[in-house]
Amino acid sequence: MRVLALLDGTLADPEAPLMRADDLSVTRGDGIFETILVVARDAREMGPHLDRLERSGALLDIPTPPRAVWERAAQAVIDAWPWETDREMALKLVCSRGVDGGDGTPTGFAMGSPVGPDTLRKRRDGLVAVTLDRGFAPDLKERAPWLLLSAKTLSYAVNMAALREAERRGADEVIFTATDGSVLEGPTSAVVLARGKTLITPPPSTGILPGTTQGALFRAAEKAGWETKVEPFDQAELRTADGVWMTSSVRLVTPVHTLDGTPIKADPELHRELTGLYESLY
Amino acid sequence: MRVLALLDGTLADPEAPLMRADDLSVTRGDGIFETILVVARDAREMGPHLDRLERSGALLDIPTPPRAVWERAAQAVIDAWPWETDREMALKLVCSRGVDGGDGTPTGFAMGSPVGPDTLRKRRDGLVAVTLDRGFAPDLKERAPWLLLSAKTLSYAVNMAALREAERRGADEVIFTATDGSVLEGPTSAVVLARGKTLITPPPSTGILPGTTQGALFRAAEKAGWETKVEPFDQAELRTADGVWMTSSVRLVTPVHTLDGTPIKADPELHRELTGLYESLY
């Protein structure tokens, strides 16, 4: 069950074709997107998501439609969602560069989908993760902006392939590492670890996406007296941390309990505390 | 003017929507493709292109439809193309993983487009190229297959961004280099250099795509007494070579005359010889 709205704010049939064969989203993965969690009509972190969509658009030279366009399309999806039966919705905003050889007008849509049982299970039971080499040096972003390292593009084939590799290894999730062994991010999530009363996540300078859910969690944790740090750390620290989480809009703050086949510290009490902090924002 | 055929071999309106919003080609760039040059109804290197499509499908775990399906769709496009006014056509075969959460059936199409005036100009006048760091070590492919380095995926946002970077630098094309300074490929082409009567191109072990046009050129050159080598070379060799070409189905064998702002050797006689060898195959 999906709900689809066009950029003019009208609804469309999600099972009918929408994009032309020569749309650059189809042929080149040439576009950007955001995924936003909507709980009981409340679109969480809408501002930071739209900020990031704009930053991605700037990195790709896509003239992203104005925020009001996205807000209107998002609202149309939210208004049409069956909230009485489905309390959560994953809202995807997609902006393509448009038709190949066209006039440069971006194409796009807003689409609501249910949060699947697999995500709910992972939120509840935690994750088995594996580390995988992303192949990049942690200082590559600055010197090679054409690699679009911190843009959230529609070119996610590698992210999806990494998740299939995890599955082959009996795992749910991937923690990408840089060539120096430092931790980067997941294919569709940020990585957060706890050491005492400090939360740590790697810096965007490594080419990772700044996480909206990670940002929200840090905001809530700071208010509650936690220290937060945005700094590089080696993958070895994932094993000695007091807890490791993967955060994303839809999975929320999901604990990792097993890494590369070995259990790691996953304190249910600490997890409840962090989840409580995050939820206190909404 | 485009011609579109579906995988059942029927024609469709290329200006009508074709892909659903939740098709994984649209949202994840999760699919594969090939671009084939068709000249006066002759689809050049169809066999090697279909071989490569199958290899890409295997690397992405996409159950690519059988060759007969692609051949039928390609033929439908060829039969409908206005050959009397347009002697060349770029034929794109696109295979997406299908609808997100669907039954796993790939979606796809065959689409014919004109060869643009820009390509014709580059074939004639040659290219201004710049080298850009691709950020990968040349031995990454073997140890990190999840990075899909030698698959021709629909996730081409970085390739397109690199071409925009070239344009910003006043250039037409990009030659990607690995972290050790060795030459890789172009965003949509292979790199070939000549040294005496030897043609050289980098090996697929570096994670580049094996070029179909490069393969055809080497086949023709060998028959004519040239030596051919598939081996790594440093970017410095681009400046000392007797000639540098970027090859692809649609651009053919296009000479590079300027690299990173400096003219390089571009002998028109040698270029005519190589182009003649390549054309002798068809």
From TrEMBL, chains A, B:
Q: Which domain of life is it from?
A: Bacteria
Q: Which organism is it from?
A: Saccharopolyspora gloriosae
Gene Ontology molecular functions: 4-amino-4-deoxychorismate lyase activity
UniProt entry tagged with the keyword Cytoplasm:
no
Q: Name one GO biological process term.
A: carboxylic acid biosynthetic process
Q: Which PANTHER family match?
A: AMINO-ACID AMINOTRANSFERASE, AMINODEOXYCHORISMATE LYASE
Answer whether the UniProt record assigns the keyword Lyase to this protein: yes
Q: One Pfam match, by short name?
A: Aminotran_4
Recorded coiled-coil stretches: none
Q: Which InterPro entries did the record assign? A: Aminotrans_IV, Aminotransferase-like, BCAT-like_C, BCAT-like_N, Class-IV_PLP-Dep_Aminotrnsfr
Name-wise, this protein is: 4-amino-4-deoxychorismate lyase
GO annotations of cellular component type: cytosol
Family listed: Belongs to the class-IV pyridoxal-phosphate-dependent aminotransferase family.
Listed EC numbers: 4.1.3.38
Q: Which keywords describe this protein according to UniProt?
A: Lyase
